[in-house]
Amino acid sequence: MHFQWYPGHMTKAKRMMQENMKLIDLVIELVDARIPLSSRNPDIDELGKHKARLILLNKADLADDKWNDAWAEYFRSKGFSVVKVNSKKGGGMKSIHGVIQEACREKIERDRKRGILNRPVRAMVVGIPNVGKSTFINSLAGKSCTKTGNKPGVTKGKQWIRLNRQVELLDTPGILWPKFEDQQVGQKLAFIGSIKDDILQTEELGAQLIRFLLDNYPGVLESKYTIEEDNDVYVTLSRIAESRHCLVRGSELDTEKAALLLLDDFRNGKMGRLTLEYPPEV
Ligand code: G4P
What is the largest distance, in Å, between two alpha-carbon atoms of the chain? Predict the structure, then answer.
């Protein structure tokens, strides 16, 4: 799902988030493991400041695992609980319940002292569009979960998904607005496909991705497209076009088509597991 964000959307999203925050104990925030900082909106730190916090490095299957671990360490050092997950295939899901209990230990302890036993933790999933919120909720909830709330005859309220006796999840995820203002951030969001291609210059974006890959993952383009990498990104792009027979009018190289193919291959993990940004301290 893609969104065009305007100030009005952001105000509405923020208001919804503030309302929902009152109902929950735990914020489950999804980030894209390939760009863990650029795919988050730090405003969530203010909105969720009195809540237990869990960060999921989602799409961990598409990111470099060495960096997944470094990012997990980074977020833990900032006080978050962290789990690496692949919501699409279910990887990492088994440990989630244990980590939720751990993240909410203070709340559970507080309840216990007040004599409240077995009150389930209430959680909400949040993240920018396309980060995998729905996929994650479906994967975690499976088919066996019961929905509560919105019973016939009862005033329309929030729907909760009862995951087990300990956890209930708000069934609609909170949508955070991505931070386009920073050009670098916008570029990385575009690389992973979170910003519509038609508002971008495909060829320029492809060239920027080539620059990143040449600098950080030398050899990747060479082995993927059987080409010799050149430090001039447009030469490399032309070689990809040549190698993949991207042609216009039968003979001219179609570098725009090559750029599209390159971006698709990257987004679908066909170049291997690649991380696009690294934790600040490293
Ligand atoms: P959203 O609710 O946050 O907007 O995201 P959504 O669940 O719709 O997921 C967006 C895309 O990301 C989907 O791909 C989904 O399959 C994919 N995805 C979610 N989690 C993971 C993950 O952990 N690993 C990988 N590799 N992909 C993930 P799509 O292209 O829209 O659909 P499809 O490819 O599943 O057909």
Answer: 78
